[in-house]
Specification:
Helix content: 10-25%
Distance between the termini: 58 Å
Strand content: 25-35%
């Protein structure tokens, strides 16, 4: 028998009447579809249909994550007996209370000490968000198995990584975002199984590729777009199985090598000239409408080796039966899910790994049968909890007998259903992550005025920790033009960003990297460089209706029509390119 009979009875009345239809999003007012396949999932998850469209639901989940563009501050630790400043993703003026990373993950504090009774005179989200705001949060969210990777957000087992987001089983990754199974890469986004790459985006199994975009299985190439299985190519686009090509023209090995000897990318002026030429290549090259590989019965973009995935993005091997998912690996039978691996039956959640039967949760691990839980590990049958480990039958961080737990959950969920709260993820207007620091700001940017008008928390600019009165500084425009002229003393100086005027410093690893690959020094702050790459080269979690540039038939495209690329459907692309 169901442990929540009253809730199930009320929900069944709703689901029985539910038919495929169109409805208006309560946030953006756009009309969206409720498909039969959606309803099948609602029946499985025992939830009503959502009030927001898929894009607004995604925005809400992204609003609680900092994993597309890393953000770092120094904030005072609130743990008992602590007063030191620690690396955190929360600014000093954010009222959220934090514990330093090691203390938060230790047994030196008890999450039950912050437990409270449920108040049926208040709505769920009102008291749940107040409860979570009163809890101590981890200063930063990352894998405890990381090695020498203090300035890292999220990821899995990073080693010697710095100022990066989601370095996944990677080593020596600097100033990058979402780098998987890769090593010795700097200033990159979205790499998978790559080594020794720089200034690149969306690469798969590439080695020694500099300033390349959307390439796979390439070697020793520069300024190339959408090349596959190519070696020693410079300034090329849409090549397959080629060697020694210069701006798509074949050369002998000797002629190609002589060309490269005459190009000094260590000189900033020359590098900027070739970056401008590469920008022209990107704007004039043919673009395939979608970047999918080995998929079956699936729709979306950046899908690889998946089956029956609808309107999904960045889905890697081992995924099946997904709807409205993004950035997932080894996940099945899930819906409205962003960011996770090794899961099944997850609904309206984000940051979930090694879990089963999870709904409306944030950053949980090795848990099952939990709802509205955050930062809970190895838990089951918990509702509205935060920071628990190895617990069962808990509600608002209070322990209950199994019978009492289910009686409370039944009444709470019934009330939530009546108040139109059950079925919704955490509200953005109560988020502890400032909107402009969150991943939502990448795909759904808002100005400070727009964010405040919508009731979103917006983080004001925080002064740099670098005290310019105590260190030498140099303006970006005064840096040596050629990397060969850069002295070791540059490591002791603060560089003033040419765009934001924020100070930043070089590390020895990156200076050695620039010298090894003969690259001129960057002139912009690392955070600005990451933002620029996300803006210019990232594939958004979105599809556009477009027409094939060649045959004019209507297609779905992962490219923003505003960029005016030549978008080809798959059939025309294969005839033209492969």
């Amino acid at each position: 028998m169901s442990p929540t009979p009253n809730f199930d009875k009320a929900l069944e009345t709703i689901l029985t009447k539910l038919q495929p239809h169109q409805k208006g999003c309560q946030q953006c007012r756009m009309v969206f579809d409720i498909f039969k396949e959606d309803i099948d999932f609602y029946q499985i998850f025992r939830v009503p249909s959502p009030t927001l469209c898929p894009q607004c639901r995604l925005q809400r989940r992204l609003g609680y994550r900092i994993n597309l563009s890393p953000v770092f501050y120094k904030k005072g630790c609130s743990a008992p007996g602590h007063s030191e400043k620690v690396v955190s993703t929360y600014a000093p003026d954010n009222p959220l209370k934090i514990y330093d990373y090691n203390f938060w993950h230790s047994d030196q504090w008890e999450p039950f000490d912050f437990g409270r009774n449920y108040d049926f005179s208040k709505k769920f989200f009102e008291q749940f968000m107040d409860f979570v705001w009163g809890m101590p949060h981890p200063a930063i969210y990352k894998d405890p198995r990381g090695v020498n990777s203090e300035y890292v957000v999220s990821g899995l087992q990073p080693k010697n990584c710095y100022y990066s987001a989601v370095p996944y089983a990677s080593e020596n990754v600097y100033y990058s975002s979402l780098i998987m199974y890769s090593k010795d890469c700097v200033d990159c986004i979205y790499l998978d199984n790559c080594q020794q790459c720089y200034g690149s985006a969306n690469l798969y199994r590439c080695h020694n590729c500099l300033f390349c975009v959307d390439c796979s299985e390439c070697l020793d190439s520069l300024f190339s777009f959408n090349c596959k299985n190519c070696q020693h190519c410079f300034g090329c686009d849409n090549l397959r199985n080629k060697k020694y090509h210069f701006f798509n023209l074949p050369l002998t090995k000797e002629a190609y090598e002589q060309k490269l000897k005459n190009i000094n990318l260590g000189d900033r002026t020359i590098l900027l000239q070739y970056l401008q030429k590469f920008s022209h290549i990107l704007s004039s090259a043919i673009h395939k409408n979608l970047n999918n590989l080995k998929i079956a019965n699936s729709s979306g973009n950046d899908l690889r080796e998946c089956n029956n995935c609808f309107w999904c993005f960045e889905i890697w091997g081992g995924c099946e039966n997904l709807r409205y998912g993004a950035s997932l690996e080894k996940v099945n039978n899930s819906m409205d899910f962003f960011g996770g691996s090794d899961n099944s039956f997850v609904y309206e959640s984000t940051g979930i790994s090694y879990c089963n039967n999870v709904k409306f949760c944030l950053q949980c691990r090795h848990s099952s049968n939990v709802e509205f839980c955050c930062e809970c590990h190895n838990c089951e049958y918990c509702f509205g909890c935060f920071g628990l480990k190895n617990k069962k039958y808990c509600l608002f961080n209070r322990q209950y007998q199994e019978k009492d737990y289910w009686a409370l959950v039944d009444e709470i969920k019934s009330r939530m259903l009546k108040d139109d709260e059950y079925g919704e993820f955490l509200p953005l207007n109560k988020a502890w992550v400032p909107y402009n620091d969150s991943s939502a700001s990448v795909d759904f940017p808002l100005s400070q005025a727009e964010a405040k008008q919508k009731g979103r928390h917006f983080q004001e600019e925080v002064k740099s920790e670098i005290d310019l009165s105590k260190v030498q500084s140099i303006k970006a425009e005064d840096l040596p033009d050629d990397i060969a002229k850069v002295p070791d003393e540059i490591l002791d100086k603060a560089i003033i960003c040419a765009t934001t005027h924020k100070p930043f410093k070089l590390t020895k690893f990156e200076l050695d990297f620039y010298r090894k690959y003969n690259l001129s020094l960057p002139t912009e702050h690392p955070s600005e460089r990451i933002k620029n790459r996300l803006r210019d080269f990232r594939h958004p979690y979105k599809l556009w209706k477009d027409t094939c540039f060649n045959c004019k038939k209507e297609i779905n495209s992962g490219w923003d029509p505003a960029k005016e690329y030549k978008i080809y459907c798959e059939a025309c692309y294969l005839r033209e390119i492969v």
